[in-house]
Amino acid sequence: MKKVFGGLMLAGLLITGCSAQEDTKNNKASESSETIKIQEQEKEVKASSTELTPPEGLKLKADTEGIVPIAIEIPALNISTEIEKVGRLENGQMGVPKGMDTVGWFSDGAKPGSPGNAVMAGHVDSKSGPAVFYKLEELKNGDEVIVKDQDGKALTFEVTGKEKYNRETAPVEKIFDYAYGSKLNLITCTGTFNVEEGTHEERLVVYTELKADE
Amino acid sequence: MKMKKALLAVPLSVSLLIPTFTVANAHGHENHSKGPMSAEVSNPAIDLRASLDTLLSEHAFLAVVAMQKGIDGKEDFEAAAGQLNQNTEALSKAVGSVYGEEAGAQFKEIWSSHIGYFVDYVTATAENNEEGRKQALAELDKYRTTQADFLDKATEGRLKAADLEEGLKVHIDQLIWAFESYRTGEYDKAYDNISEAMHHMFMTGKGLSWAITDQFPDKFENKSVDTPAADLRADLNSVFSAHAALAALTMQKGIDGAKDFEAAAAELNENTDDITAAVESVYGAEGAAQFKEIWSSHIGYFVDYVTATAEKNEDGKKQAIAELDEYRMEQAKFLDTATEGRLKAADLEEGLKVHIDQLLAAFNSYTGKDYPAAYKNISEAYAHMFGVGQSLSGAIVDQFPDKFAGQKPSDMPKTGMGGMSQSTNDAILWSLFGLILASATTAMILRKKATNNS
């Protein structure tokens, strides 16, 4: 059985396509002579292939990896803070950050910079005072939101709109949906605080999109 | 664009236009969790995604092959280009089934144009015509805008022209670079780019299928293309289809004694590593090592077959086929055991036989100079792998449902505690305050009255 050597034999076939006779002992030696032959061939090809200039500025990979964000800055609101990962609570709600001054990123969803809607939430207030997204509503179209990963790679998003929704009828599916472009949606509470339910009656969503290459 | 009316043409027919792929199936096994949250690998939305992935990634593969064959002036160029056109035909039909015939025709015209510009580029290169090459690139730039505009309008802005132009640029640049690397003898780069170019199209397929299902949710049972299970299916589709594509091409290069044979074979081995990594993520390192050994063996037997063909050694060919038969059993047994019987060995053997026969047929047609048959076989071998991806992902998701449960929130977060907000309590307070004020006033008036009266 030569199962194990399948890959090696493949290499052996190279030059003529019909000389895969070497046993594995000779393989290393033959590989290096093959390498030399290949280099010769390459020189040959290059020499024969005219002076055509290869096109420049080719983009060979889409920048769609996205980043794992650890920090967020919103210059217009003087916000610069850390990001916590949050998930989905038992009751189906998006989780919230533990801190009043930090922002929670829904890490089971899209990464900022990858296709889809990345979602972050921050508190509007604590029991006694304002919290990180207290002034989120003041953001205007064109304002920038910058997120960074632990290597300092930064992505800049631009506000494209904002919307208030009743907490029970907000289009949750849309807010967390896939998208071809890269979006980042910021959520906080707004409206009257319903003491009985322990939550605000409305949610504010600020929509942003990744800015084209800076 | 008269898309609105035409869409009643039922987007569902997309799945009818594209052959459904059946290999071994995870069926016969109860689907435990039903409902919108169930981790399913197949529903109308996810199937649409897979169908578009098939056509789009095959386009990238055939385009690269046609460009190689074109610059080399190979006899099979016409057949490769012909298969590429059939792919365009199928893609346009799919678009037509969603957006209407007229839109389908319009799509076909635009899409075909970019293939034409690639041909122009290759021709200009062959003629050592720098101007012609520049001209072709300029045309491709213009094409990007036209194509992006078409899709933006068709999807009613779900796919934004700017994003599309970016994605199309990557597609075009990958093909140009794969070609440039090939013609200048940098074969490793050329083959890296082929894989990348095929893989890129899976993102396009996800985007387009997402837009379509978002646009016509009721035609797709309101299902989403964006689930962990759907992503697994797409990932497996991607690595398995690349295997078939690279295997077919490597066998051609082998029998031709082509200079890029080793690079093609190396890329095929890298693909084996990718598949192995996928297996490892599910079944662990030990299982993956075992898988890799078995999987690599069948590539080795294909090589034996090519070698025997080159040597006109009929016995050698028979021997290779016998080895491949043995491989089928072993591979089937492995997958049956790994999936705990969700994939049945008998079905798997059948599916693997199809795969092996398709690749052998593609190769034999090629050596027999029946090129149209060769490329038809390759296309079938390619599509077949999407059935493999579906079956295996179905079994895995059924076996490890927790890994693919990944749910999105159904409710908004509770991002406030009310300290700075007007609350329902405040409202009560205010009304109380009003009452107090009112009573105070009354009291004052009463008091005044009393004073006056005194």
Q: What do these coordinates show?
A:
The complex is a heterodimer of chains A (214) and B (454). With 214 residues, chain A is of the alpha+beta class. Chain A has two domains: 3-48, no CATH class; 71-210, Sortase (Sortase, Chain: A), CATH 2.40.260.10. In chain A, 15% of the residues lie in helices and 30% in strands. Chain A contains three helices and eight strands. Chain A is elongated and about 80 Å long. With 454 residues, chain B is an all-alpha fold. Chain B folds into two domains: 9-18 and 42-226; 227-403, no CATH class. Chain B contains 14 helices and no strands. Mean pLDDT of chain B is 88; it is low at 1-37. Chains A and B meet through helix 1, helix 2, helix 3, strand 7 and strand 8 of A and helix 6, helix 7, helix 8, helix 9 and helix 10 of B.
Domain count of chain A: the total is 2
Number of helices of chain B: 14
Strand count, sense and closure of the main sheet of chain A?
Answer: 8 strands, mixed, barrel
Mean pLDDT metric of chain A: 83
CATH architecture of the largest domain in chain A: Beta Barrel
Name given to the CATH homologous superfamily of the largest domain in chain A: Sortase
What low-confidence regions of chain A span 5 or more consecutive residues with pLDDT below 50?
1-31, 43-48
Structural class of chain B: mainly alpha
Question: How many domains comprise the coordinates of chain B?
Answer: 2
SSE pattern of chain B, N- to C-terminal: HHHHHHHHHHHHHH
Quote the average pLDDT of chain B.
88
Give the C-alpha Rg of chain A: 28 Å
Q: Strand portion of chain A, in percent?
A: 25-35%
Could you please say which CATH topology of the largest domain in chain A applies here? Answer: Sortase, Chain: A
Alpha-beta content class of chain A: alpha+beta
